[in-house]
Amino acid sequence: MTGHHQVWAYAFEETQWWNDVILKKNSCSSIIGSGFEEKKNSSEPLSACLASPCGMCNGIMNGEPVIFIADSNSSTIRVVTLNDGHVTNLVGGDADSTNLAAFGDLDGTGHHAKLQYPIGVAFHYPSSYLYITDAFNNKLKRVDMKTLLCSNYFVTDNDKKKTRGETNSSKFYEPHGIAILDHFLYVADKNNSHIKRIDLDHGTFIRHRFDLSETLNEERSFRSKKAYLAIFLDDALKLRDGNAG
């Protein structure tokens, strides 16, 4: 919940959660964040502080299952270990937890890397890369989870109908939602009114231009799977796997 600076969870069944907290069936409760807008890390998930968290995804770090959070107002990517709820910083921001103005555009590790209002995150399990839509820098970035280096990710324009004079480097304009299915990365390039589909095996992309004034549902086939793109104005790009039940 961006406005509350927290992450909430809905329990479909009664669940024993971190610190022996019981989440009752069909209940919705805050599980991460104190509600104060800061960038405070903590081993106690409800004592940690977030700053307008937006995109989230599952992933692996140091061999353990984690949740990655695009913490937009602190311009950081936060990590929550699923085993105990420990909240730490991955990249971006500043060592001062109250400093929410430590933004920029720099490659690097930890606090040396700089982002500006990241919104979406997606983890690619085969390569162990975390992809980030760095909205106000108009860039797509990625973190190599083996080295923890955050850097710009450039892809080649594979669209034969591209505008004359356009370079082969993809251009984003406040990219927002992001999702991965198989070896394809989908990016909702908000202000360009594009959905960019990136082939992660070859580093190329094609763009799909849509009128985002209306909701679009498009069915596509991927090998033996079927997936559905659900695109909403001012919302994230979501993929639903037709075989996931």
Automatic annotation (TrEMBL):
<dbReference type="InterPro" id="IPR011042">
    <property type="entry name" value="6-blade_b-propeller_TolB-like"/>
</dbReference>
<dbReference type="InterPro" id="IPR001258">
    <property type="entry name" value="NHL_repeat"/>
</dbReference>
<protein>
    <submittedName>
        <fullName>Uncharacterized protein</fullName>
    </submittedName>
</protein>
<keyword id="KW-0677">Repeat</keyword>
<dbReference type="Pfam" id="PF01436">
    <property type="entry name" value="NHL"/>
</dbReference>
